[in-house]
Amino acid sequence: MIAVDWGTSSARAYRLAPDGGVLERCEGAGGILRVPDGGFPAALTAMVGDWLAAGETRVLLSGMVGSRQGWQEAPYLACPAGLEDLAGAVVPVPFTGASVRLVPGLSAEDPAGTPEVMRGEEVQVFGALAGGTADALLCLPGSHAKWVRVEHGRIAGFTTHMTGEAFAALGGHTILGRMMTGPAQVGPAFEAGVARAADEGGLLHHLFGTRALGLFGRLAPEDAASYLSGLLIGHEVASAMTQPALVHLVGSGPLMALYGRAIALRGGEAVVGDPDAAARGLALIAERTEWM
Amino acid sequence: MIAVDWGTSSARAYRLAPDGGVLERCEGAGGILRVPDGGFPAALTAMVGDWLAAGETRVLLSGMVGSRQGWQEAPYLACPAGLEDLAGAVVPVPFTGASVRLVPGLSAEDPAGTPEVMRGEEVQVFGALAGGTADALLCLPGSHAKWVRVEHGRIAGFTTHMTGEAFAALGGHTILGRMMTGPAQVGPAFEAGVARAADEGGLLHHLFGTRALGLFGRLAPEDAASYLSGLLIGHEVASAMTQPALVHLVGSGPLMALYGRAIALRGGEAVVGDPDAAARGLALIAERTEWM
To answer: Side by side, which strands form the sheet with A115-118?
Structure first.
């Protein structure tokens, strides 16, 4: 079968063996924002046409491709939701030459009743836990980082933190950006930012402290981005991991190391999972899907 | 005498009577960023030359004009500091035709040892409390909002919150901006944002909630800026006013109403002071200054 994790800004396609192993992969087409109106069938063919020609007949899609801005809207499924729930709610889309299905996203409410949504991360969560843990806490770093609680094998709830996008906006469009010269990386400045997040005063006060430390020569320009990153990720981890816990980190790239360090500094333990979690999760859903 | 509150982006000059009353005022010259190298004597003359020609001989300046980027650097004075301390630390600057003095800014450390600085606000604080309260909590809203504790008539300490600049960066350069159509104003959406700040989850999570509420049609585009403003000011007030208190609000413009409402919603009481607090504060310092 073919699995595609098709998000806003990227698309990753996998050709999977019957046991779910990855046979081939392709980073195709670009995200849904690059697809013109009515262009999804052609975009899918451009990405996986060779595999279809080679005999594949089933295609399972996850991510923003199932949003209002995507191929077709697959309504959110409310939490709690497990693999069987997702498989039972896949939405068929018309396509000539294969059975194509969309996995719905999930909705939830935080303890105060504010709505939450995800599209694509639910598949990565089940892929990351593949066949394993019935209860787990997972973190998916990113522009909109997600913290997901799995209970009895189903996603019980989750919270989203606008950490990555806030870092870009504050670093790029405030006085803090003018004092930054390097990238954000693990090290003493990042750790000082994480520690600072535990002080009283709140995030908005801590942001100004970044500026004041620079003014007094106590934070070098090449360390400022790491400090700001530590401050923001530290605040996120403090809110989302309210007591030391084992956290499954899902994703890839430099954020994994930053989140792993911040979680450890707050007494938790981070384990980094399979970077192909999306493919694995789609395979698990495909197994449970009625294809006819 | 002549008093000038000369900041980064604006300059306000006042001609004062011997009792400190405002005789004339002028919004001159623009902030220090508009003054070319070596151009401060000419900029001052352009602003208050008529008053000097009419016989004024003393000029007291406060604000960023005393910073490294200003006319001449007046080193920060450490807190606690009162009117006498400020008057004793004014810095003379060379000028033909009048005695010109700079009021220094103040430095402090927050409880965790992170540095804090202000330039200009210290003068407004003493002006706002003119002759009155020996102990007070003041708030000066703005890009970098200040909360100032006055004890026994001296500024004991203060904290800065990057609330205004964060609002501009988040509203202008994240997904939140795309859902905003109106200005931030007092009303139910602002109040909902302030209330939301008291929920668990942290500011970075609450920011995403703004987006999610919009997605579910529970926050209208014309209300989104007010909600975001309430969220940020609510977080600031929660951190800075740790128990219900009387807060002296110093400043002018739409922020006064927003802060007043947020303070009231958290059980405090806000009083709005004299919009000419800077002139009054400079008069009080001038009285205590050795001019020869």
So the answer is: A77-78, A106-109, A115-118
B2-132+277-287: CATH, from 3.40.930.10, 3.30.420.40, 3.30.1180.10, 3.30.420.300 = 3.30.420.300
At residue B131 the predicted structure's pLDDT band, cuts being 50, 70 and 90, is low
Chain B residues with CB within 8 Å of chain A CB: 110-112, 114-117, 144, 159-163, 165-166, 168-170, 172-175, 196, 199-205, 207-209, 211-213, 215-216, 218, 232, 235-236, 238-240
pLDDT in tens, A127-140: 999 867 789 999 99
Q: Compute the distance between CA of residue B158 and CA of residue B80 in angstroms, rounded to an integer.
A: 10
Reply yes or no on domain A163-272 having CATH 3.30.70.20: no
Residue in A with minimal Cα distance to B108 = A212
Beta bridge mates, B4: B13, B61
ipTM value > 0.90: yes
Other C-beta atoms closer than 10 Å to the C-beta of B94 total: 8
Q: How confident is the model at residue B29 (pLDDT cuts 50, 70, 90)?
A: low
Q: Indicate the CATH number of A2-126+277-288 among 3.40.50.300, 3.40.50.720, 3.90.1150.10, 3.30.420.300.
A: 3.30.420.300
pLDDT of residue A244: 97
